[in-house]
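Can't paste images in this forum, so I'm doing it all in text. The chain is below; anyone willing to post the predicted structure tokens underneath?
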Amino acid sequence: MEVDHADYAEIQCTIRSLVIRSQLDWTDDFRRQDTDKLATMFRAARKAHPILRRFVNNWATAAIARQYMQNKRKHAYKQGYIKKRSNATDWTHQRREDEDDSMGGAAGLGLGAGAGVGARARAAAV
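Text version of the structure:
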């Protein structure tokens, strides 16, 4: 950003209060936030600080909000206010119900359809 330290601190303070007023869930990852709440926060931030209009797709506002939420979450973990989410509850690591291991071998490990073909061909030749 092309602002001095005092202006940046004021923008940070505004975005922090907007995260709270927008009722974003700081205990959850920024990527999983409600888009309507984010849009409200972005509009309010641009209105309060017109310099934020310069940044395409609100990337500067998002970066400050993301960092604030991440710091708040890390502090809460360390203090024991909240517990870390286990991988079992993380949707990125869960299997879909329609997935199966019918491909088997290297292809079943996500290495692609052609992976391991040479080993199977050698085993068939023996």
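DSSP finds five helices and no strands in the chain. The first helix runs from residue 5 to 21.
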